[in-house]
């Protein structure tokens, strides 16, 4: 009898627990809880690709043996950790870094490359220190200005959407070094309820670390 009772109480407790879990594994949140308004920010910096540096900022992964008449044959993958600076000079103040990769995605020979890039911009200075933006898109490098979408972000850039314009400033096609001006246009949120930076980033957006949701 005792065993029977134990079985049933365990059974009902399990049921109760299961229903609690299923009731809390997601929830709808009113966008009003953001307590923030959407704003548009423009950021400009310079992106430096330095292959001739003693510590190169990029690595070419296993270039395919076909189409040797291209500096970056179709299918090549390049991994980058590039310095972002405030001015066109690589020695000017560093404000962040770009990390990610790109693929050579055209079968046309020569320098007229079409690459598909996917990288993260991490800011290391100022209001956006520690926040990141995610860029993913096609880059036809010989065009004067290339546009790529911003597909998201973290920190101050949660819910980010926008685009970047990339414009080559200095390119050494023989060595492979390049300096590219980036103009970022991004919609993101800023809290209207507080003034300090830390609060601006976190207040109103802290439901994203809601203890209920973090148990998933
Ligand atoms: C950026 O944030 C990091 C980590 O919180 C901190 O160590 C660093 O001092 C900050 N840099 C600036 C320039 O505020």
From TrEMBL:
<dbReference type="InterPro" id="IPR004265">
    <property type="entry name" value="Dirigent"/>
</dbReference>
<keyword id="KW-0964">Secreted</keyword>
<dbReference type="GO" id="GO:0009699">
    <property type="term" value="P:phenylpropanoid biosynthetic process"/>
</dbReference>
<dbReference type="Pfam" id="PF03018">
    <property type="entry name" value="Dirigent"/>
</dbReference>
<comment type="function">
    <text>Dirigent proteins impart stereoselectivity on the phenoxy radical-coupling reaction, yielding optically active lignans from two molecules of coniferyl alcohol in the biosynthesis of lignans, flavonolignans, and alkaloids and thus plays a central role in plant secondary metabolism.</text>
</comment>
<keyword id="KW-0052">Apoplast</keyword>
<dbReference type="GO" id="GO:0048046">
    <property type="term" value="C:apoplast"/>
</dbReference>
<dbReference type="InterPro" id="IPR044859">
    <property type="entry name" value="Allene_oxi_cyc_Dirigent"/>
</dbReference>
<feature type="signal peptide">
    <location>
        <begin position="1"/>
        <end position="23"/>
    </location>
</feature>
<comment type="subunit">
    <text>Homodimer.</text>
</comment>
<keyword id="KW-0732">Signal</keyword>
<protein>
    <recommendedName>
        <fullName>Dirigent protein</fullName>
    </recommendedName>
</protein>
<comment type="similarity">
    <text>Belongs to the plant dirigent protein family.</text>
</comment>
């Amino acid at each position: 009898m005792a065993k029977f009772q134990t079985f049933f109480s365990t059974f009902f407790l399990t049921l109760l627990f299961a229903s609690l879990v299923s009731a809390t594994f997601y929830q709808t949140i009113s966008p009003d809880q953001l307590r923030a308004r959407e704003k548009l920010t423009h950021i400009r910096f310079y992106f430096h690709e330095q292959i001739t540096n003693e510590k190169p900022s990029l690595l070419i992964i296993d270039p395919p043996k076909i189409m040797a008449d291209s500096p970056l044959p179709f299918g090549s993958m390049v991994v980058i950790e590039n310095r972002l600076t405030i001015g066109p000079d690589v020695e000017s103040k560093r404000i962040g870094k770009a990390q990610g990769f790109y693929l050579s995605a055209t079968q046309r020979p020569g320098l007229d490359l079409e690459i598909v890039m996917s990288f993260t911009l991490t800011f290391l200075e100022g209001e956006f220190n520690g926040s990141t933006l995610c860029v993913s898109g096609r880059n036809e490098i010989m065009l004067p200005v290339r546009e790529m979408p911003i597909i998201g972000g973290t920190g101050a850039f949660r819910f980010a959407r926008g685009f970047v314009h990339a414009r080559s400033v200095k390119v050494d096609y023989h060595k492979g070094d390049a300096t590219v001006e980036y103009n970022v246009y991004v919609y993101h949120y800023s809290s209207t309820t507080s003034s300090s930076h830390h609060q601006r980033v976190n207040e109103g957006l802290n439901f994203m670390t809601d203890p209920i949701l973090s148990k998933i």
